[in-house]
Amino acid sequence: MPTPLIELPDRRRIALSEIERSREHRAHYLGPSHGKAGDVLCLCRSEGIPMGVGHRSVPHDTYYLYPLQRSDPARHALGCPHRMVEQQAEASGDAAGPPVVEIRGDRINLNLAAPLYRASSAAGAGDTDDEPKSGRLRAPAPRGRLRSLLEVLWSQAELNIWRPAFARKRHYGVVSHRLREVAATLQLRAHDLAPLLYVPPPYHPDREEELRAGRDRWLSNLTQNPKNGRQWYGYLVGIVKHVERQDGSFILKCAHFPLPLHVAAKAWEQYADVWLDMAPQDAFTPEHPIAFIARVERTDAAREIRLDVRDFAALPLSDGSSWIPVDSGHERQLVRSLLATQRTFRKPLAIEEQGDRLLPDVILEDRADRMHLEVLGMMNHAVYAERWRQKQARYEQLGQALWWWDPQATPQPPPLPPAQGRVT
Protein backbone atom coordinates (compact mmCIF):
# COMPACT_ATOMS: atom_id res chain seq x y z
CA MET A 1 0.00 0.00 0.00
CA PRO A 2 1.16 3.61 -0.48
CA THR A 3 2.67 5.29 2.58
CA PRO A 4 -0.20 6.12 4.98
CA LEU A 5 -1.24 9.65 5.85
CA ILE A 6 -0.73 10.89 9.40
CA GLU A 7 -3.31 13.31 10.79
CA LEU A 8 -1.83 15.90 13.15
CA PRO A 9 -3.79 17.69 15.91
CA ASP A 10 -4.31 20.73 13.64
CA ARG A 11 -6.05 18.39 11.11
CA ARG A 12 -3.19 18.54 8.61
CA ARG A 13 -2.64 15.24 6.85
CA ILE A 14 0.99 14.52 6.00
CA ALA A 15 2.41 11.41 4.32
CA LEU A 16 4.41 9.28 6.75
CA SER A 17 7.30 9.22 4.25
CA GLU A 18 7.45 13.03 4.39
CA ILE A 19 7.45 13.04 8.21
CA GLU A 20 10.24 10.47 8.34
CA ARG A 21 12.36 12.10 5.64
CA SER A 22 14.79 13.49 8.21
CA ARG A 23 15.19 14.11 11.94
CA GLU A 24 14.36 17.75 11.28
CA HIS A 25 11.06 16.77 9.64
CA ARG A 26 10.22 14.46 12.55
CA ALA A 27 10.88 17.26 15.04
CA HIS A 28 8.81 19.75 13.01
CA TYR A 29 5.75 17.54 12.58
CA LEU A 30 5.82 15.33 15.68
CA GLY A 31 7.59 17.44 18.30
CA PRO A 32 4.52 19.55 19.24
CA SER A 33 2.54 16.35 20.02
CA HIS A 34 5.17 14.76 22.26
CA GLY A 35 3.54 13.55 25.47
CA LYS A 36 -0.01 13.96 24.13
CA ALA A 37 -1.04 10.34 23.59
CA GLY A 38 -3.65 9.84 20.89
CA ASP A 39 -3.49 13.32 19.35
CA VAL A 40 -1.87 11.90 16.21
CA LEU A 41 -3.76 9.44 13.98
CA CYS A 42 -2.51 6.93 11.43
CA LEU A 43 -5.03 6.96 8.57
CA CYS A 44 -4.20 3.56 7.12
CA ARG A 45 -7.69 2.72 8.41
CA SER A 46 -10.67 4.94 7.74
CA GLU A 47 -11.42 5.49 11.44
CA GLY A 48 -7.85 6.61 12.17
CA ILE A 49 -5.71 4.77 14.72
CA PRO A 50 -4.40 6.90 17.63
CA MET A 51 -0.65 6.84 18.18
CA GLY A 52 1.80 8.20 20.70
CA VAL A 53 4.78 10.43 19.95
CA GLY A 54 8.00 9.45 21.69
CA HIS A 55 11.39 11.13 21.96
CA ARG A 56 14.87 9.66 22.32
CA SER A 57 18.36 11.10 22.35
CA VAL A 58 20.39 7.90 21.71
CA PRO A 59 21.88 7.19 19.22
CA HIS A 60 20.38 10.37 17.69
CA ASP A 61 18.01 12.99 19.00
CA THR A 62 14.70 12.27 17.25
CA TYR A 63 10.93 11.91 17.58
CA TYR A 64 8.99 8.80 16.57
CA LEU A 65 5.50 7.28 16.52
CA TYR A 66 4.64 4.28 18.68
CA PRO A 67 1.54 2.11 19.39
CA LEU A 68 -0.40 3.01 22.52
CA GLN A 69 -1.48 -0.55 23.32
CA ARG A 70 0.03 -4.00 22.83
CA SER A 71 -2.86 -5.01 20.56
CA ASP A 72 -2.68 -1.87 18.39
CA PRO A 73 -0.20 -3.02 15.69
CA ALA A 74 -2.69 -5.59 14.39
CA ARG A 75 -5.30 -2.83 14.02
CA HIS A 76 -3.26 -1.26 11.21
CA ALA A 77 -3.79 -2.25 7.59
CA LEU A 78 -1.51 -4.76 5.91
CA GLY A 79 1.38 -2.84 4.38
CA CYS A 80 1.29 -0.06 6.97
CA PRO A 81 4.72 0.27 8.66
CA HIS A 82 2.97 0.58 12.03
CA ARG A 83 1.64 -2.95 11.70
CA MET A 84 5.30 -3.92 12.25
CA VAL A 85 4.94 -7.52 11.08
CA GLU A 86 4.56 -7.54 7.31
CA GLN A 87 4.84 -11.22 6.54
CA GLN A 88 2.62 -14.03 7.73
CA ALA A 89 3.58 -17.69 7.92
CA GLU A 90 1.12 -20.53 8.24
CA ALA A 91 0.48 -21.90 11.71
CA SER A 92 2.43 -25.02 10.79
CA GLY A 93 5.59 -23.00 11.25
CA ASP A 94 7.15 -24.36 8.07
CA ALA A 95 9.83 -21.77 7.37
CA ALA A 96 10.95 -23.44 4.14
CA GLY A 97 8.15 -22.00 2.03
CA PRO A 98 7.42 -18.35 1.25
CA PRO A 99 5.28 -16.35 3.69
CA VAL A 100 1.54 -16.54 3.19
CA VAL A 101 1.22 -12.74 3.10
CA GLU A 102 3.94 -10.38 1.95
CA ILE A 103 4.10 -6.75 0.87
CA ARG A 104 5.42 -6.03 -2.61
CA GLY A 105 5.52 -2.30 -3.25
CA ASP A 106 1.94 -1.05 -3.13
CA ARG A 107 0.46 -4.55 -3.43
CA ILE A 108 -0.31 -7.28 -0.92
CA ASN A 109 0.77 -10.65 -2.27
CA LEU A 110 -0.67 -13.95 -1.03
CA ASN A 111 1.17 -17.19 -1.69
CA LEU A 112 -1.63 -19.72 -1.92
CA ALA A 113 -0.75 -23.39 -2.16
CA ALA A 114 -3.36 -24.24 -4.80
CA PRO A 115 -2.56 -23.96 -8.53
CA LEU A 116 -3.59 -20.69 -10.17
CA TYR A 117 -4.43 -22.22 -13.54
CA ARG A 118 -4.79 -25.48 -15.40
CA ALA A 119 -2.42 -25.91 -18.33
CA SER A 120 -3.20 -28.10 -21.32
CA SER A 121 -0.63 -29.43 -23.76
CA ALA A 122 -0.15 -32.24 -26.20
CA ALA A 123 1.02 -34.36 -23.28
CA GLY A 124 -2.28 -33.91 -21.51
CA ALA A 125 -3.88 -31.56 -19.02
CA GLY A 126 -2.84 -30.83 -15.49
CA ASP A 127 -2.30 -28.22 -12.81
CA THR A 128 1.20 -27.29 -13.90
CA ASP A 129 1.84 -23.70 -12.83
CA ASP A 130 4.14 -25.00 -10.09
CA GLU A 131 6.23 -27.17 -12.41
CA PRO A 132 9.96 -26.29 -12.24
CA LYS A 133 11.53 -24.87 -15.38
CA SER A 134 14.03 -27.10 -17.14
CA GLY A 135 17.39 -27.14 -15.39
CA ARG A 136 16.10 -25.26 -12.33
CA LEU A 137 15.51 -26.44 -8.82
CA ARG A 138 11.93 -26.33 -7.60
CA ALA A 139 11.30 -23.39 -5.27
CA PRO A 140 9.83 -24.14 -1.83
CA ALA A 141 6.10 -24.70 -2.19
CA PRO A 142 3.73 -22.01 -0.90
CA ARG A 143 1.55 -22.93 2.07
CA GLY A 144 -1.31 -20.42 1.99
CA ARG A 145 -4.91 -21.61 2.24
CA LEU A 146 -8.04 -20.18 0.66
CA ARG A 147 -9.35 -19.04 4.05
CA SER A 148 -6.31 -16.72 4.30
CA LEU A 149 -7.43 -14.88 1.16
CA LEU A 150 -10.97 -14.46 2.50
CA GLU A 151 -9.66 -13.13 5.82
CA VAL A 152 -7.33 -10.64 4.12
CA LEU A 153 -10.22 -9.38 2.00
CA TRP A 154 -12.44 -9.03 5.07
CA SER A 155 -9.78 -7.38 7.22
CA GLN A 156 -8.55 -4.93 4.57
CA ALA A 157 -12.17 -3.96 3.87
CA GLU A 158 -12.46 -3.23 7.64
CA LEU A 159 -15.43 -5.58 7.94
CA ASN A 160 -14.13 -7.05 11.21
CA ILE A 161 -14.41 -3.63 12.90
CA TRP A 162 -17.59 -2.15 14.34
CA ARG A 163 -18.56 1.29 15.59
CA PRO A 164 -22.09 2.39 16.55
CA ALA A 165 -22.00 4.97 13.73
CA PHE A 166 -21.99 2.08 11.23
CA ALA A 167 -25.54 1.05 12.20
CA ARG A 168 -27.93 0.86 9.20
CA LYS A 169 -25.09 1.88 6.85
CA ARG A 170 -23.26 -1.41 6.27
CA HIS A 171 -25.59 -3.01 3.74
CA TYR A 172 -24.62 -5.56 1.10
CA GLY A 173 -23.92 -2.92 -1.55
CA VAL A 174 -21.33 -1.27 0.71
CA VAL A 175 -19.76 -4.62 1.63
CA SER A 176 -19.43 -5.84 -1.97
CA HIS A 177 -18.00 -2.48 -3.10
CA ARG A 178 -15.35 -2.53 -0.36
CA LEU A 179 -14.33 -6.08 -1.19
CA ARG A 180 -13.88 -5.19 -4.86
CA GLU A 181 -11.77 -2.17 -3.91
CA VAL A 182 -9.53 -4.34 -1.75
CA ALA A 183 -9.20 -6.98 -4.49
CA ALA A 184 -7.59 -4.34 -6.72
CA THR A 185 -4.70 -4.11 -4.23
CA LEU A 186 -4.07 -7.88 -3.93
CA GLN A 187 -2.03 -10.40 -5.86
CA LEU A 188 -1.86 -14.19 -5.86
CA ARG A 189 1.72 -15.36 -6.29
CA ALA A 190 2.59 -12.08 -8.06
CA HIS A 191 -0.48 -12.21 -10.37
CA ASP A 192 -3.17 -9.53 -10.03
CA LEU A 193 -6.24 -10.89 -8.26
CA ALA A 194 -8.83 -8.41 -9.58
CA PRO A 195 -9.41 -10.04 -13.03
CA LEU A 196 -9.91 -13.44 -11.37
CA LEU A 197 -12.15 -12.46 -8.45
CA TYR A 198 -15.85 -11.66 -8.63
CA VAL A 199 -17.97 -10.20 -5.85
CA PRO A 200 -21.56 -9.97 -7.11
CA PRO A 201 -22.99 -6.45 -6.86
CA PRO A 202 -26.50 -6.21 -5.40
CA TYR A 203 -29.08 -7.24 -7.97
CA HIS A 204 -31.49 -4.66 -9.36
CA PRO A 205 -33.72 -5.22 -12.41
CA ASP A 206 -32.89 -1.77 -13.80
CA ARG A 207 -29.17 -2.69 -13.89
CA GLU A 208 -29.53 -6.17 -15.36
CA GLU A 209 -27.53 -5.49 -18.53
CA GLU A 210 -24.75 -3.74 -16.61
CA LEU A 211 -24.55 -6.60 -14.11
CA ARG A 212 -24.47 -9.21 -16.87
CA ALA A 213 -21.66 -7.36 -18.67
CA GLY A 214 -19.51 -7.29 -15.52
CA ARG A 215 -20.19 -10.95 -14.83
CA ASP A 216 -19.37 -11.90 -18.44
CA ARG A 217 -16.04 -10.05 -18.26
CA TRP A 218 -15.08 -12.14 -15.25
CA LEU A 219 -16.23 -15.37 -16.86
CA SER A 220 -14.25 -14.61 -20.02
CA ASN A 221 -11.07 -14.49 -17.93
CA LEU A 222 -11.68 -18.12 -16.93
CA THR A 223 -11.66 -19.56 -20.45
CA GLN A 224 -8.67 -21.34 -21.94
CA ASN A 225 -6.08 -19.19 -23.68
CA PRO A 226 -5.49 -20.84 -27.10
CA LYS A 227 -1.93 -19.46 -27.29
CA ASN A 228 -0.50 -21.05 -24.14
CA GLY A 229 -3.22 -23.52 -23.12
CA ARG A 230 -3.69 -21.91 -19.72
CA GLN A 231 -7.11 -21.80 -18.11
CA TRP A 232 -7.14 -19.70 -14.95
CA TYR A 233 -9.20 -20.58 -11.92
CA GLY A 234 -11.60 -17.92 -10.70
CA TYR A 235 -12.60 -16.82 -7.20
CA LEU A 236 -16.16 -16.03 -6.20
CA VAL A 237 -16.90 -14.23 -2.92
CA GLY A 238 -20.47 -13.98 -1.72
CA ILE A 239 -23.17 -15.09 0.69
CA VAL A 240 -24.51 -18.65 0.66
CA LYS A 241 -28.15 -18.55 -0.41
CA HIS A 242 -28.89 -22.25 -0.25
CA VAL A 243 -27.42 -25.67 -1.00
CA GLU A 244 -29.34 -28.57 -2.51
CA ARG A 245 -28.48 -32.11 -3.53
CA GLN A 246 -28.92 -32.90 -7.21
CA ASP A 247 -27.99 -36.04 -9.16
CA GLY A 248 -25.37 -37.26 -6.70
CA SER A 249 -23.71 -33.87 -6.24
CA PHE A 250 -24.52 -30.54 -4.59
CA ILE A 251 -25.61 -27.22 -6.07
CA LEU A 252 -24.56 -24.11 -4.16
CA LYS A 253 -26.43 -20.89 -4.90
CA CYS A 254 -24.84 -17.53 -4.10
CA ALA A 255 -26.91 -14.46 -3.29
CA HIS A 256 -27.05 -11.93 -6.18
CA PHE A 257 -25.38 -14.45 -8.53
CA PRO A 258 -27.57 -16.34 -11.03
CA LEU A 259 -25.28 -19.24 -11.96
CA PRO A 260 -25.24 -22.43 -9.86
CA LEU A 261 -21.96 -23.69 -8.42
CA HIS A 262 -21.46 -27.45 -8.79
CA VAL A 263 -19.76 -29.31 -5.94
CA ALA A 264 -18.91 -33.01 -5.83
CA ALA A 265 -20.80 -34.76 -3.02
CA LYS A 266 -17.71 -35.94 -1.15
CA ALA A 267 -16.06 -32.52 -1.46
CA TRP A 268 -19.12 -30.70 -0.12
CA GLU A 269 -19.36 -33.03 2.86
CA GLN A 270 -15.73 -32.19 3.68
CA TYR A 271 -16.30 -28.44 3.26
CA ALA A 272 -19.41 -28.51 5.43
CA ASP A 273 -17.62 -30.51 8.12
CA VAL A 274 -14.77 -27.97 8.28
CA TRP A 275 -16.58 -24.66 7.78
CA LEU A 276 -20.26 -25.12 8.54
CA ASP A 277 -20.27 -27.02 11.82
CA MET A 278 -21.79 -24.12 13.81
CA ALA A 279 -25.40 -24.72 12.81
CA PRO A 280 -25.60 -26.37 9.37
CA GLN A 281 -29.34 -26.89 9.63
CA ASP A 282 -30.01 -23.14 9.68
CA ALA A 283 -26.70 -21.73 8.44
CA PHE A 284 -28.22 -20.36 5.24
CA THR A 285 -30.80 -18.00 6.73
CA PRO A 286 -30.65 -14.20 6.99
CA GLU A 287 -30.27 -14.66 10.76
CA HIS A 288 -27.17 -16.85 10.33
CA PRO A 289 -25.46 -15.67 7.11
CA ILE A 290 -22.34 -17.38 5.79
CA ALA A 291 -19.78 -15.49 3.70
CA PHE A 292 -17.68 -17.73 1.47
CA ILE A 293 -14.97 -17.81 -1.15
CA ALA A 294 -14.91 -20.54 -3.79
CA ARG A 295 -12.12 -21.37 -6.21
CA VAL A 296 -13.99 -22.28 -9.38
CA GLU A 297 -13.19 -23.74 -12.78
CA ARG A 298 -15.19 -23.32 -15.97
CA THR A 299 -16.11 -26.74 -17.31
CA ASP A 300 -18.69 -25.70 -19.90
CA ALA A 301 -20.72 -28.38 -21.59
CA ALA A 302 -21.92 -27.38 -25.07
CA ARG A 303 -23.17 -23.79 -24.85
CA GLU A 304 -24.02 -23.84 -21.16
CA ILE A 305 -21.69 -22.10 -18.72
CA ARG A 306 -20.78 -24.39 -15.86
CA LEU A 307 -18.73 -23.55 -12.76
CA ASP A 308 -17.26 -26.37 -10.66
CA VAL A 309 -15.99 -25.65 -7.15
CA ARG A 310 -12.40 -26.83 -6.60
CA ASP A 311 -11.93 -25.34 -3.13
CA PHE A 312 -14.13 -23.58 -0.59
CA ALA A 313 -13.74 -21.61 2.65
CA ALA A 314 -16.27 -19.75 4.75
CA LEU A 315 -16.69 -17.05 7.39
CA PRO A 316 -19.86 -17.39 9.48
CA LEU A 317 -21.21 -13.92 10.25
CA SER A 318 -22.96 -12.47 13.27
CA ASP A 319 -25.84 -11.10 11.17
CA GLY A 320 -26.66 -9.49 7.84
CA SER A 321 -26.24 -5.89 8.98
CA SER A 322 -22.87 -5.79 10.79
CA TRP A 323 -21.06 -8.54 8.80
CA ILE A 324 -18.75 -9.29 11.74
CA PRO A 325 -17.17 -12.78 11.48
CA VAL A 326 -17.82 -15.22 14.33
CA ASP A 327 -16.37 -18.63 15.15
CA SER A 328 -19.23 -20.16 17.14
CA GLY A 329 -22.87 -19.73 18.03
CA HIS A 330 -21.93 -18.43 21.48
CA GLU A 331 -19.54 -15.93 19.92
CA ARG A 332 -22.41 -14.77 17.72
CA GLN A 333 -24.45 -14.28 20.90
CA LEU A 334 -21.67 -12.15 22.40
CA VAL A 335 -21.23 -10.04 19.25
CA ARG A 336 -24.96 -9.40 19.00
CA SER A 337 -24.93 -8.26 22.62
CA LEU A 338 -22.11 -5.82 21.82
CA LEU A 339 -24.06 -4.52 18.83
CA ALA A 340 -27.21 -4.06 20.89
CA THR A 341 -25.34 -2.08 23.55
CA GLN A 342 -23.59 0.11 20.94
CA ARG A 343 -20.04 -0.93 21.72
CA THR A 344 -16.96 -0.31 19.56
CA PHE A 345 -14.96 -3.48 18.97
CA ARG A 346 -12.80 -5.50 16.63
CA LYS A 347 -12.88 -9.19 15.75
CA PRO A 348 -9.27 -10.42 15.26
CA LEU A 349 -8.87 -12.94 12.44
CA ALA A 350 -6.55 -15.94 12.29
CA ILE A 351 -4.39 -14.23 9.65
CA GLU A 352 -3.12 -11.99 12.50
CA GLU A 353 -1.88 -14.93 14.56
CA GLN A 354 1.89 -14.92 14.95
CA GLY A 355 4.30 -16.27 17.51
CA ASP A 356 3.06 -15.68 21.05
CA ARG A 357 0.70 -12.85 20.08
CA LEU A 358 -2.61 -13.22 21.89
CA LEU A 359 -5.54 -13.71 19.55
CA PRO A 360 -8.76 -13.18 21.53
CA ASP A 361 -12.27 -13.62 20.18
CA VAL A 362 -13.07 -9.89 20.45
CA ILE A 363 -11.19 -6.73 21.50
CA LEU A 364 -13.12 -3.80 22.99
CA GLU A 365 -11.85 -0.66 21.27
CA ASP A 366 -13.92 1.71 23.44
CA ARG A 367 -11.74 1.12 26.49
CA ALA A 368 -8.21 2.35 27.16
CA ASP A 369 -7.19 -1.13 28.35
CA ARG A 370 -8.34 -2.72 25.05
CA MET A 371 -10.05 -5.45 27.05
CA HIS A 372 -9.80 -8.87 25.40
CA LEU A 373 -12.98 -10.99 25.35
CA GLU A 374 -12.76 -14.78 25.25
CA VAL A 375 -15.60 -17.27 24.73
CA LEU A 376 -14.56 -20.66 26.07
CA GLY A 377 -15.56 -23.98 24.58
CA MET A 378 -15.33 -27.66 25.50
CA MET A 379 -13.93 -26.92 28.95
CA ASN A 380 -14.93 -30.44 30.01
CA HIS A 381 -12.21 -31.69 27.65
CA ALA A 382 -8.79 -31.90 29.33
CA VAL A 383 -6.85 -30.68 26.29
CA TYR A 384 -8.98 -27.55 25.81
CA ALA A 385 -9.00 -26.83 29.54
CA GLU A 386 -5.19 -26.98 29.63
CA ARG A 387 -4.91 -24.68 26.59
CA TRP A 388 -7.11 -22.13 28.33
CA ARG A 389 -5.06 -22.39 31.53
CA GLN A 390 -1.89 -21.63 29.56
CA LYS A 391 -3.53 -18.76 27.68
CA GLN A 392 -4.90 -17.30 30.91
CA ALA A 393 -1.41 -17.43 32.43
CA ARG A 394 -0.11 -15.56 29.39
CA TYR A 395 -2.74 -12.86 29.88
CA GLU A 396 -1.69 -12.48 33.51
CA GLN A 397 1.98 -12.35 32.56
CA LEU A 398 1.34 -9.52 30.09
CA GLY A 399 -1.06 -7.67 32.37
CA GLN A 400 -3.69 -7.61 29.63
CA ALA A 401 -7.25 -6.83 30.77
CA LEU A 402 -9.42 -9.92 30.23
CA TRP A 403 -13.11 -10.88 30.27
CA TRP A 404 -14.15 -14.46 29.66
CA TRP A 405 -17.32 -16.50 29.43
CA ASP A 406 -17.80 -20.25 29.76
CA PRO A 407 -21.26 -20.97 28.25
CA GLN A 408 -21.25 -24.46 29.77
CA ALA A 409 -21.11 -22.92 33.24
CA THR A 410 -23.36 -19.87 32.66
CA PRO A 411 -25.80 -19.77 29.70
CA GLN A 412 -25.80 -15.96 29.64
CA PRO A 413 -22.62 -13.86 29.32
CA PRO A 414 -21.37 -12.11 32.48
CA PRO A 415 -21.76 -8.31 32.58
CA LEU A 416 -19.31 -6.48 30.35
CA PRO A 417 -17.20 -3.57 31.63
CA PRO A 418 -18.61 -0.20 30.53
CA ALA A 419 -17.30 1.84 27.63
CA GLN A 420 -15.12 4.80 28.46
CA GLY A 421 -15.27 8.34 27.17
CA ARG A 422 -12.29 9.46 25.10
CA VAL A 423 -10.23 6.43 24.17
CA THR A 424 -6.76 6.61 22.62
What brief labels describe this structure?
424 residues, alpha+beta, five-stranded mixed β-sheet, 8 helices, DUF1173, DUF1173 domain-containing protein
What would you say this structure looks like, in words?
Residues 121-140 are annotated as: Disordered. This is DUF1173 domain-containing protein. It comes from Sulfurifustis variabilis. Pfam families: DUF1173. With 424 residues, this protein is of the alpha+beta class. The chain folds into 3 domains: 5-83, no CATH class; 101-121 and 143-222 and 232-316, no CATH class; 341-405, no CATH class. Helix content is 21%, strand content 25%. The chain has a 5-stranded antiparallel beta sheet with strand order 2-1-3-4-5. The protein has a 5-stranded mixed beta sheet with strand order 10-20-21-22-23, covered by helices on one side. A 5-stranded mixed beta barrel has the order 15-16-17-19-18. Strand 8 (117-121) and strand 9 (124-126) form a beta hairpin. Residues 86-94 and 278-282 have low confidence and may be disordered.
Kindly name the structural category: alpha+beta
Shape: globular
| Rg computed from alpha carbons, rounded to a whole number of angstroms | 23 Å
Strand proportion, as a percent range, falls in 25-35%
| Count of beta strands | 23
Report the uncertain regions: 86-94, 278-282
Order of strands across the biggest sheet?
2-1-3-4-5
What number of domains?
Answer: 3
Helix content: 10-25%
Number of helices: 8
Assembly status: single chain
InterPro entries: DUF1173 (IPR009553)
Protein name: DUF1173 domain-containing protein
